[in-house]
Amino acid sequence: MKRVKITVMRRTEYPDLMAEFENPIEHACDLQLGQTFVVENGLRPEGLCESAWESLRPFVEELAAGGGNFFDGWMRNPQSAMLSCNDGFRPVSFYVEVIE
């Protein structure tokens, strides 16, 4: 299996949606811009939340197995993907790429 690096590229929040729909929570996300994780043996890296991992995992598994070229040329680097977690209130964008 190839090693795959996950990099936090962007974080955002939608306070209007949070105010209208979300129950207040004290702690949502610890991820920092530029933070990286390396996937070894297909296992979720420590510190990466389970929700984000579930969004990224199918792409990570495909890249680790030597695949890629998602959606017929979507990414300039065919062994990569730009993805986000499924938190609609405070999405985080991740760059996922094969590393040698």
Query: How much helical structure, as a percent, in the residues?
Result: 10-25%
Q: Residue ranges: pLDDT <50 for 5 or more in a row?
A: none
- Report the span from N to C terminus: 11 Å
How many distinct domains? 1
Class derived from helix and strand content:
alpha+beta
Spatial extent as radius of gyration = 14 Å
Largest sheet: 4 strands, antiparallel
Number of strands: 4
Mean pLDDT: 94
- Output the strand order for the largest sheet: 2-1-4-3
Can you walk me through this structure?
The radius of gyration is 14 Å and the shape is elongated. The chain has 100 residues and is of the alpha+beta class. 17% of the residues are buried. It has a four-stranded antiparallel beta sheet with strand order 2-1-4-3, with helices on one face. It has two helices and four strands. It has helices spanning 15-21, 50-64; strands at 3-11, 36-39, 80-84, 92-99. The model has no long low-confidence stretch (mean pLDDT 94). It has one domain.
Brief characterization of the structure:
This protein has helices at 15-21, 50-64, and strands at 3-11, 36-39, 80-84, 92-99. The protein is an alpha+beta fold.
Notable traits:
single chain; 100 residues; alpha+beta; 2 helices; 4 strands; 26% strand
Secondary structure topology:
Layout: E1 3-11, H1 15-21, E2 36-39, H2 50-64, E3 80-84, E4 92-99
Antiparallel strand pairs: 1-2, 1-4, 3-4
